[in-house]
């Protein structure tokens, strides 16, 4: 009898073990892919929100720099920009703050810090007018850079007060230096300043120094002095004509209320600031029912 041999043939397809392994590998590989896609979506969303917030923030800064009066408790101050916000001034504070929301649900926080100091020197025999007759530094604008005492300076300016000397230096360590005999530093900003500039101030002395920065009348206050170290009082002044003086004479008057305005914008949809910017502007802060002065 002829022996019959049996042959086992493997059926096409996957075994249960192979199916389990394949599913597990697919799950492992899908996690980084999902994470990458999700991250890209979030980054794209944050980029879009940041662009929108930047437009809103710049409009707010431009608007606050163009108006003269801000009324406390009035929700309509920025209504033309689609921002519902009311400002308040805490007791015993020189700051005005406001927190609101835009029509696009962005959260807006605005802080206005009064940076005007007393303009009268404590020494009776030495007035501000006397001080400003011969300012230590005369600043003009030339080719989008500041010209200080005839020297064209680069960006990133710093004003450093040391023993008997004060100097203004740029990022290339080019400096304009002047001796000081008292606790005052005088700066005359002459003519139109089209761009905005920031000068960091460092006082290395133990005594308080006063900086007087004088502008011509009706001139943009585009040079912001920011104290980074030491005790410094900064007074912004305006040079005005006096009808009782000769035509070529003038007097120094205090510049109304000069505020450093900071604007930050956030969203509940993403973390962190989407926009942060600042400017300096002259504003009258009024109570409800009180006009500008």
What labels describe this entry?
293 residues; six-stranded antiparallel beta sheet; 2 domains; extended; seven-stranded mixed beta sheet; alpha/beta; single chain
Structure, described:
- The chain has 293 residues and is of the alpha/beta class.
- The chain has 2 domains: 15-111 and 275-293, no CATH class; 117-255, no CATH class.
- Helices cover 18% and strands 38% of the residues.
- The chain is built from 2 helices and 20 strands.
- It has helices at residues 16-64, 128-132, and strands spanning 69-71, 83-84, 87-88, 95-102, 107-114, 137-142, 145-148, 151-152, 157-162, 165-169, 175-179, 184-189, 197-203, 209-216, 223-229, 232-240, 251-254, 258-266, 275-282, 284-286.
- Strands 8-7-6-12-14-16-17 form a 7-stranded mixed beta sheet.
- A hairpin with a 4-residue loop joins strand 4 and strand 5 (107-114).
- The N and C termini lie far apart (125 Å).
Write a brief structural summary:
By secondary structure, the protein is of the alpha/beta class. The protein contains two helices and 20 strands.
